[in-house]
Amino acid sequence: MLRRSAWPLAAIAVLIAASEAHAHKPSDSYLTLAVAGTQVAGQWDIALRDLDRVLGLDANADGAITWGEVRERHRDMAAYALSRLSLATDSEACPIATAEQLIDRHSDGAYSVLRFTARCAREPAPLQVTYRLLFDVDPQHRGLLRLQHAGQARTAIFSPDAPMQRFTIGEPQRLAQFAEYLKHGVWHIWIGFDHILFLLSLLLPAVLVRSGARWQPASAFRDALLDVVSVVTAFTVAHSITLTLAALGVVAPPSRLVESAIAVSVVLAALNNILPVVSERRWVLAFVFGLVHGFGFASVLIDLGLPRGTLLTALLGFNLGVEAGQLAIVCVFLPLAWRLRATWAYRQLAVIAGSGAVMLLALVWLAERAFDLRLWS
Predict the structure, then answer these.
(1) Are 189 and 150 in contact (CB under 8 A)?
(2) pLDDT at 305
(3) Which of these, 34, 42, 30, lies nearest to 133 by C-alpha position?
(4) What are the residue boundaries of the structural domains of the chain, listed by start?
(5) Ordered alpha helix ranges (H), the chain
(6) What angle do CA 293, 376, 107 make, to 5 degrees?
């Protein structure tokens, strides 16, 4: 039977095991609305894997969705999506009509691209958008909106708790733009399981010291705190650099290479807890691999799009959102780890067995991302 102190760690292990193996990109769709007078032009990118889940696109059940299978279901896909989206002014709905359907690739796979137009009786100010795609089958799904008008853009996130939102058409306020991208940053780090597991793998030994061939509990909280601060700071500085460079289009490495390298970083960080090579200056690992993770963070920001008029505001908001989400994780982790550091459950179950489980999971991610396989349903 597990000791009482092991239950929090066991719960964490169960949550990790139950997490989706495609860690970096959860279920998102990308909705763009461009308002010009009384007309709204829309483009909606929805992952084919999500549509297959509800419509069964893979007709022959061979595990691969072909262009022929998609083409046969275009009408069903459009009807399903548009039945879960509505646009309206204060007084009446804006009818939506399908324009065309295409296929495009995002960093996490193939997407259906649905283009449509909506006509309102008068200029939609404000515009009310109601979004209910996939919420009935996946409460973790999010709709990422980019709203354009007169050369300006703003963003929003639709969730089961916020399926309907209203937007005043006009130039967005910088503070509102900052808040929107801040929210995107927080959400992205919280659902980025590979980022979280990399960081936690580096932080697990922070409350321990290496003595011979064993991990022993640290005696001074100040030393543990400084270790955590150095790792988190190095990770933050590194991923902020590459996130900014990628978002501005200065550097654009292939997404498969980035995602594979992120999986490698998780493998090495976890392996280092079992067979320590770097036991004291883990901030170096945090910085080196943080550069890679920054490209991963940038992928969602690129998909959202950066508004030209408030470029620096959006970048700053997203980056600070990532840091706020990261800080929340650290604030939960450190007190719990310090309290349990002297227990067998922490040193063996969390650090050794937990790191082994994380390493195996990351190896699955690596195989999937490097060779475009599907090993985890």
Answers:
(1) no
(2) 67
(3) 30
(4) 4-23+192-371, 28-172
(5) 7-18, 48-55, 67-72, 74-82, 174-191, 193-203, 221-247, 255-274, 282-304, 311-340, 344, 354-371
(6) 40
For 360, counting Cβ atoms within 10 Å of its Cβ (0-12 exposed, 13-18 middle, 19+ buried), the class is exposed
Angle formed at CA 329 by CA 374 and CA 176, multiple of 5 degrees: 95
The residues near 164 (Cβ < 8 Å, ≥ 6 apart) are: 128, 129, 130, 131
Q: Structure tokens of 161?
A: 């708790």
Distance (Å, whole) CA 116 – CA 78: 10
CA dihedral 80, 84, 89, 94 (to 10 degrees): 10
Single-letter residue type at 123? E
Q: Do 70 and 48 touch, CB atoms closer than 8 A?
A: yes
Query: Tens digit of pLDDT for each residue in 285-303?
Result: 999 999 999 998 887 777 7
pLDDT above 80: residue 351: yes
Residue with tokens 């597990």: 2
Q: How do strand 85-88 and strand 164-167 relate by DSSP bridges?
A: unpaired
pLDDT at 306: 66
Top-confidence residue, 273 or 192: 273
Let me know: does 159 contact 142? Beta carbons within 8 Å.
Answer: yes
Q: Report pLDDT digits (tens) over 67-109.
A: 889 999 999 999 999 999 999 987 789 999 999 999 998 867 7
Q: Residue 109 corresponds to which amino acid?
A: G
The CA-based dihedral angle spanning residues 205, 210, 213, 214, taken in that order and rounded to the nearest 10 degrees: -60
Q: How far is CA 204 from the centre of its chain?
A: 22
* Eight-state DSSP code of residue 6: G
